[in-house]
Amino acid sequence: MEEWVGQWWHRIATRLAERQYPHAAVRLEDMSGQLAVVFRAMGGLPQWRLAGASERRHKGPRGLMQKIAGSGQRFAMPVLDAETLALPPELALFDQTDLNRELYLWLAGQGAMRLQLCSMGDEAHADGDWINGNLKATSCLLAQYPGWRARYRRLVEQHLAQRPDPDGLRGWQAVCERAVQLALRQSLQTLPEGVQAGGEWDTLSQPVRSDDVLPVCLWVDVSSAQTALVAQARQDQAREGQGEEAPKPTDGTRRRAKQASESHERHALMMFFRAESLLSWTEFVRVNRQTDDDPVEDSRQIANDMDTLSVAPGGQTLASRVRFDLDLPSAAADDQVIAQGILLPEWDHRKASLLPDHCAVQVLLPTVAEPWQVPPSLRTTASRMRRRLESLRAMPRWQGGHTSGERLNMDAWVRWQVESRAGEGDVATLSEPRVFARPQRSERSLATLLLADLSLSTDAWAAQDARVIDVIRDALYVFGQAMDGLGDPFEMLGFSSVKRHNVRVHALKRFDEPWGAATRDRVGAIKPGYYTRMGAAVRYATKALSLRTEKQRLLLLLTDGKPNDLDHYEGRFGLEDTRHAVQAARSAGLHPFCITIDEQAADYLPYLFGQHGYALVHKPQDLVSRLTNIVATLSA
Fold first, then answer.
1. Residue 302, SS3?
2. Residue 505 and residue 490: Cα distance in Å, rounded?
3. Best CA proximity match to 594, nearest among 558, 634, 540, 554
4. In the predicted model, what is the mean pLDDT of residues 461-477?
5. Sign of the C-alpha dihedral, residues 268, 271, 275, 279?
6. pTM passes above 0.70
């Protein structure tokens, strides 16, 4: 009975203390696509991504019912850090859905403008100048996009109506609230000429911070502590021999963190008080947890409850995180090494330079224990795909530049119209423009190299009866059968890595090898490897494909996730290196294209391969047929 009464009272008190409007809520995941476009269009750098913000404690005033219910202490504040623009996972601050949706759009634009000003080294955006930094970003945003002024006015007027009266507050709370409201009202009064940064808040004894007041939903905070933390995490670690377990999938929430130094003093300690009192001091004492503790199951909830995560380089590795199965196999158990010591560079975005001879590649020939027995259903699929690609060999190609033909080339016609009206050159005197195309049989000149990701993540289950590596194996077989029917030269490679000195490339089929029983057995013998140093693999494939003399050279990358390795090669470092390798492949005259089964690919692949340089296969089991279809489309 007491428990029922307690739950009933909690529900009533929480409902009465609620300051939001759940019926008009808008979720970030529903707006992520539109917000990403707005963020990029308004100057947001492509390296930054959108993420959900974690709730942070603030010192703003609360109402009586909020104090009784214990609510209103935390809010998911918009934060811009070194890698992401973190926005609230849900907005229900206004009673109209359109206003909450407009608030999301405004925050994306405000974040993009703050990022631009931060990248230019603007002093107003240093940590601690929260008001002036946001006012200057608002000024620049409205100056560049005056159509947003009406939206900004609506949002500010609605937000000011929700803020507390500064006369009812006391002390520093009243000073901070009065400064924030003065800045917002001043921005409305000077709206036609642009918001002017600077005001009475600059004369205060200390700057107003974002957590000193009730959250200002239109402003974006800049986390310099987070920037320093990420920069430190990207540095090369001397402890390269320590392996750690791959992180579990997270909820995508961006949490606040700070860098902390660790004390290595090991002097004895004598306590002159009862040890039981330590339980009440855990919030205030910096305790270095032992590294041999068991993993905490509810660590995500604990992280959400903490305002700031303190991270210190401890110099030790959790024993439970070491992957013992990731040690390189012995020479007797490993595949046959046919080439090693191939040195390749690697791009370091922090130094904006290419590190020469930074990675070492070894080429291996898969060891075939027994011939691969291809399932009959897979043979049927391969025969169907082979017949489709065989039809491309006899298909005529459309060739433009004719004065008459069966098809009008609209691009050529528009170009001729523009140039003729402008009177450029002798175009205006041409009585018969060359804007038609004719079908003509021409000799195909195409070389294709398929690079398959064979990292440990492919050992996951794609369906109830097949792993990802099994789907990749079937797709490679169908691809080989179809390309053999097409008659164009092709090569198939697999890759994985264990740090920069052990980039492993498996030669499944070379350009100068025929597709037969030996190459099929190598495809059947593939198995999950180690990690994914994608940039080095792409550079090796670029080097091999650049030796071909065909007019069209297609570089295909088949993967299931982001680039990563045991050392610093993860996160932005891996993405930047892979992007640089893809750009180098394009500069060499190749056509790189990525095929992935990663559901999060839209967050990073457009930055690596371009908006039209990748294809996402939502169901891994469909990869077998989709791979060949994509090749047929690209080579047509």
1. helix
2. 16
3. 558
4. 89
5. negative
6. no
